[in-house]
Amino acid sequence: MTEVISPAAPGSWRPGDAWLGGGTALFGEPRPHLRRLLDLTTAGWPPLRTGDDGVEIAATCTIAELAERIAGHRIVRQCCHAFLASFKIWNVATVGGNLCAALPAGPMISLSVALDGTLLLIGPDRTERRVAAADFVTGEGTTVLRDGELLRSIHLPAAALTARTAYRRGSLHPHGRSAVLLIGRAEPAGSLTLTVTAATRRPHVLRFASPPQADELAAALGAIPAEEYMDDVHGRPVWRRHLTGHYAEQIRTELGA
Amino acid sequence: MTRPDSVLINGSAHERAPRPGQCLRTYLREEGCFGVKKGCDTGDCGACTVHVDGQPVHSCVYPAFRARGRSVTTIEGLAGPSGLHPVQQSFLDAQGFQCGFCTAGMIMTAAALPADQREDLPRALKGSLCRCTGYRAITDAIEGRPPAITEPAPGAAVGSSLGAPAGPGVVTGSARFTFDLDVPGVLHLKVLRSPHAHARIISVDTSEALAVPGVQAVLTHKDVPDVLFSTAQHEHEAEDPYDTRVLDEVVRFVGQRVAAVVASSEAAAEEGCRRLVVDYEVLPFVVDPELALAPGAPVVHPSPALSSSSSSSPSPSPSPAPSPTPSPSSRPAVSASFTPPSPSPSSSSEPSSCSNVVGELHASLGDVDAGFAAADVVYEATFRTPRAQHASLETHGAIGWLDDDGRLVIRSSTQTPFLTRRLLARLYDLPPERVRVIAGRVGGGFGGKQEMLVEDLVALAVLRTGRPVRWEYTRAEQFLGATTRHPFVVALKAGARRDGLLTAMRLNVLVDTGAYGNHGTSVMHHGCHESLAVYKCPNMRTDAVTVYTNTVPAGAFRGYGLGQVTFAVESVLDELARRIGMDPVTFRELNVVRAGDDLTAPGDHVDDLRIASYGLDQCLSHIRSAAATTDDAPPGWLVGEGMAIAMIAAGPPGGHFADATITRLPDGRYELAVGTADFGNGSTTVHTQIAADELGTTPDRIVLRQSDTDAVRHDTGAFASTGVVVAGEAVLRAARALRAQLTASDVPGVAATGHGHFDGTPRSVAFNAQWFRVAVDPDTGELRILRSVHSADAGTVMNPLQLRGQIEGGVAQALGATLAEHVDISASGEVTTTSFRHYHLPTFADVPPTEVHLASTSDTIGPLGAKSMSESPFNPVSPALANAVRDAIGVRLTDLPLTADRIWQAMQQ
Which terminal residue of chain B, N or C, has fewer Cβ atoms less than 10 Å from its own Cβ? Predict the structure, then answer.
């Protein structure tokens, strides 16, 4: 490591560089291949901007700021508490960093996907593109980000933020790492969106135009391939798959009531 | 406000700029804030917690450059001008620590908790790990309970809840652990570890590594002495096979050290390791212990049979003096021979024909077949316990230098300074007096530091460069390249009559020692002894084998094999009691040994062990009372209860030696010198209590000098639960000798010294019993402990607060092994669980309070009637919990850990 560029800006990336958010992931393991850190936290991006159409969360917004500023939304609070990490990490870790790490258990991924978020990405040539949060994470630790591209912000639409939600989380340990994290969202018009995260290698979203019956829900879940379920120390795949179905049915019942 | 480029640390501006990739933790330590600890370096444990502009952060994952222009508070800056911060004071009052390594971070976290977070400590403390206490004492500290410590009157220290002498240092961050000192000019050592489970090193090209700026030396197998040894440390070296070299031409597990690079910075040493070019000839390997026994299995150590013994230890030395005479040859002189394999056709294997066998035990008492024939009920099952890591929050590491006299000095995180010195002297052909080994405060041990894992390379690097050298394991290296608890496969068949009497037990044990035999045979013998000897079963048969595999070596771990075998024994007896329709406590009462009984188990065992006090009956009666309580469980959950017992010898067989001296100082205080290290076990506190009472003074007038090979003649070490019963006895004898001198001719102001020695024999036994009530959610497999009760017979209680702490901590650590922990090895032999994120240690939320009951006994052997109680609370926990789960769900779980996914899966069958 030879240099820190702070503040960094889109376009300053070159091979051997890494965008730096809070640093809690980047500093958490040796990265001998890195030469420069491009610090985004000093770029001056306002952490949160609330408008009529929803909330714009800067990638550099810390978890603590998110929890404090929009804690009125229960689902935000729940997803913050889904972190294995403590409130001390919240003070440093960023929303964007959690998304870009692309771990199955990343709760900001769960939140963004469950609320139909849209992500703003900026390429090395400063071209912007928007991708649905549901399409951002492609697998364990992988995203649609290209070399030198950065995540600028996450937009959560007002309608989703104010929708009724139901949240279920399973872990091998109390306050442990999420093995299953399901969020259901009911729109006033009667649709139900169910987001499956943590249990699977990437988020899976099931959309129902009207409240589904139990067998309809089970059939939709059954379309998630068995090999999509995570097999690691945080829970066996057969159990994660069972819990996914179990919690999905609880969510269906809760939101259908 | 500070200048924009400097870092304000505890009110002082620090101008030195952090390096670009540096984390705040290392920067603060370089600036002298040694209270900021490294526990994990991944943001998971919280030992490094500091405040940045008033906000608590984990400094190990906080970019140091970002602290410029900010104000940082560390534990050193928490106390105000009027004294300790209230949180520091309450951690001292509640003794909310044991080893103290996590304490600074715990205090910095607690001091930053807003009121709402204090109401939910399980959540608030999920980033704050303690491996010692089980969190009860930490809860008391944070909740500000009235002080638990007492200040005893002269002569009344024993039996009081005296606080640890190190307490003020621990809560202020000034206690000095291994690396908490500034060594000017120190070089950094890093190792390259093997990517192969088994390989011969054809060549190591060091040229590119040596070209890295700052690299001072590269050490390979060509640089080490041609001496074999064992990393395990025992008074009698012959207990362990000599199968290890400082650096070997053959590597036998993924993660074994291949070469070391010594450089002026850690970064340069790491870069040097990356530039080493190693040519390997990959060899066949075996990672499964059952396959390792098969004919034609790859042979881990192709040399002829290594040392082993057929009894639980070599014969005790006839001389009370330590006998650290090194064997001149590369192989220890071992008089004991292998016991031939069982002639019985029912024996499942003939392991002696396999060259991966390190040690074995085949022996019977009575007639097992006749015993089974006489049984009304017979039950048999096979149990598996995984590798577990000690996870002491201070990793392994050492700093070495040459003192002004040219003597080699090694400051190490060790449980065995004297044995490490003995081995270093042998390795490098130095007279023992030319080597000094010292330990600072040790940040947790649990058996993991009864091992020489770093000192040999540090010593070599010091001798080679003439410069001070340090080597500190990373947390990942703890998993890859330290030791683990031995994984066991235990098959047990037991029979009983309908009236409840045990008629026969047949035990088959397979121990995986990994790539090296350190502790492998002794753990097997110990595991097969007290676990059976606590029962008066007339017919018993044991067949046990320890085998090599190409995996990270196992080593000493709290319980030393007993926990693994006890899991099987107590599970099977629970099932027997259930099948004959008898409650498990009555079943135990019918079958356990009683005062006056011999302690017997199959095999030759050193015969100095006896029941010198008996409180198991009281423990069982505490458990019976526990079962009379009631608890609420969530609706629909299945509720069950389970119990188990354990017995442990107070000290290892065959000699464990301690010397102590106590000297009256001119100012009227006394200097007590003991060899043993304190890593949170509390033996140091008890030593001052014993000395103070014998000399009719108060503990604050006892000045300690300890864990330094210059302090006393010899000390075997702080392991095998000997801190009170062996070192404490030596202290008692020293204090009595001094008192006798002073009584005979007391000339005030004239120095007087008393010496005490104890050779660790004879030995008594301590007892423990654990009971749980649990609830299981049948829909998810989630398990909740509704009530946890532990009863212990520790003889005279020297320090009630500390004893309670040892028991709570032992139960918590065992809950980790029972409910969560497993070190995993891939098919290619690689450890895949290398951080606390993937190796789940019990957090505050995982550990329920445990009610602790103590038997009232006084031992006729132990000092002032005391017995040991540091390893033993661990041992009955796994079976008690498994028995409770069995009671709840109707399925017997035989493989640890009992995680929710496994419980749920078992319920589907």
Answer: C
Distance in angstroms (rounded) separating the CA atoms of residues B687 and B730: 9
Whether the pLDDT of residue B701 is over 80: the answer is yes
Considering CB atoms only, which of A1, A233, A246 is closest to B779? A246
Give A-chain residues touching B127 at CB under 8 angstroms.
Answer: 85-89
Question: Does the structure's ipTM exceed the value 0.95?
Answer: yes
Tell me the per-residue pLDDT of B49-61, one tens digit each, with 9 for 90 and over.
999 999 999 999 9
Find the residue in B nearest to A90 (Cα).
B57
What CA dihedral angle connects B370, B371, B375 and B378, to 10 degrees?
-110
Distance between CA atoms of A230 and A235, rounded to whole angstroms? Answer: 8
Q: Given pLDDT bands bounded at 50, 70 and 90, which one contains residue B627?
A: very high
**Would you list the DSSP string of B706-741?**
ESBTTTSS-B--S-TT-IIIIIHHHHHHHHHHHHHH
Cα dist from B740 to A233, B94, B664, whole Å: 61, 37, 13
Q: Chain A neighbours among B 867-906 (CB < 8 Å)? A: 899-902, 904-905
Q: SS3 helix, strand, coil % of chain B, rounded to 5?
A: 30, 25, 50
Interface residue B105 vs chain A (CB under 8 A): no
Contacts of B824 in chain A (CB under 8 A): 233
Residue B745 has a pLDDT of: 80
Please name which of A30, A1, A13 lies closest in space to residue A151, comparing C-alpha atoms.
A13
Which CATH number applies to B187-285+393-444+449-480: 2.30.30.240, 3.90.1170.50, 3.30.70.270, 3.20.20.370? 3.90.1170.50
Q: Which residue of B has its CA nearest to A25?
A: B61
**What's the pLDDT at A169?**
98
> Alpha carbon B850 to chain centroid distance?
21
pLDDT digits (tens, 9 = 90+) for A181-219: 999 999 988 999 999 999 999 999 999 999 999 999 999
Domain ranges for chain B, please list them: 1-178, 187-285+393-444+449-480, 351-389+484-652+763-908, 658-758
Q: Are A22 and A88 in contact (CB under 8 A)?
A: no
CB-based contact (8 Å) between B41 and chain A?
yes
| Topology match between the domains B1-178 and B658-758 | no
B400: phi > 0 → left, psi -120 to 50 → alpha, else beta; which?
A: beta
pLDDT of residue A1: 82
